[in-house]
Amino acid sequence: xxxxxxxxxxxxxxxxxxxxxxxxxxxxxxxxxxxxxxxxxxxxxxxxxxxxxxxxxxxxxxxxxxxxxxxxxxxxxxxxxxxxxxxxxxxxxxxxxxxxxxxxxxxxxxxxxxxxxxxxxxxxxxxxxxxxxxxxxxxxxxxxxxxxxxxxxxxxxxxxxxxxxxxxxxxxxxxxxxxxxxxxxxxxxxxxxxxxxxxxxxxxxxxxxxxxxxxxxxxxxxxxxxxxxxxxxxxxxxxxxxxxxxxxxxxxxxxxxxxxxxxxxxxxxxxxxxxxxxxxxxxxxxxxxxxxxxxxxxxxxxxxxxxxxxxxxxxxxxxxxxxxxxxxxxxxxxxxxxxxxxxxxxxxxxxxxxxxxxxxxxxxxxxxxxxxxxxxxxxxxxxxxxxxxxxxxxxxxxxxxxxxxxxxxxxxxxxxxxxxxxxxxxxxxxxxxxxxxx
Length: 438
Description:
Blueprint: H1 14-38, H2 40-47, H3 51-79, H4 81-98, H5 105-119, H6 122-133, H7 136-168, H8 170-191, H9 203-209, H10 223-227, H11 230-261, H12 277-304, H13 309-324, H14 336-364, H15 367-399, H16 403-423
């Protein structure tokens, strides 16, 4: 088998096909979860929701998502990504369709609980797959590319949801997007295998993938062990402080634009399509896509130039934290264009930040432990998201103002980076039983 040094340009690019497949998984995952936020004004009018009702529906998703992350991480580390992700995709696609049958707030809450539990497998499974298919030097870019699927999903959602809801009613939109999940499920079962089992992967590409050395057999990482490790707490704290900002934009952005900028969901003869929420969401999440890929590229580029992994990752996190700071002014933006640009910068910052802290798990943990730690951090992020949903719902009910909410959004990334650096100043490998310590 050829040595890594001999593979200046590795023969075989199948791993990038796997990355594209993971991109598709994350894209449909986000379409299914975000459609309710896009159609909130229409469903709210039809169903008679209050702001607190909607906050409770969002909380139901986040609670089941967080609990699911605690369980699914260890499940994926135990049964493997191919089987575990296939089950999850099937279940969340069914749950997405069930939203169309909802007749009251309780029905929506039950559908969101099932959806959240199943969708919790997406990121642990995707990041674990990147750790299996990519060497360390390429992982941040791989994670950045799959993470861009979240932005594409959110970007496509208003196009798909508003078009279908306007033509056939909001229930049809849930059925159509749920059925797309089964297309992705077929692609997953058809094309995903482990690198050593895949006949389409050349020996040279396998050598490239395994260039960091074969990992020794490790014990399955337990929650009790992980909770005592600083390497797990960096991710738990990072997600707890920053995920609420992403959930805020995911579920409340159309409402924020409507309340602070007077934008509408459907165009009128006076306003035209470019004064509506749909194009604004497209702009926001296009910028988020750029942030996701650029954040992954930057740290990988710095490592290729000889920077240490620690310095490269944290420099990228600092750039993202600075980019997010202008969010504190978004509630008083002088025009819709300025508001969209500020929010777009914030979502770009979030995705650049997320791409790198996801990758830092694989930097410090063996592959068999990645999904467990990611699940724990994702659960912490869901708890933060629950708090954000409740605070947002009650703040709007009582004050009708987004000012205190976006103030936190702008400062969250600087706070998270401070915690991360204090917890893992040198990014030492985690002490997992059986793992090689450097």
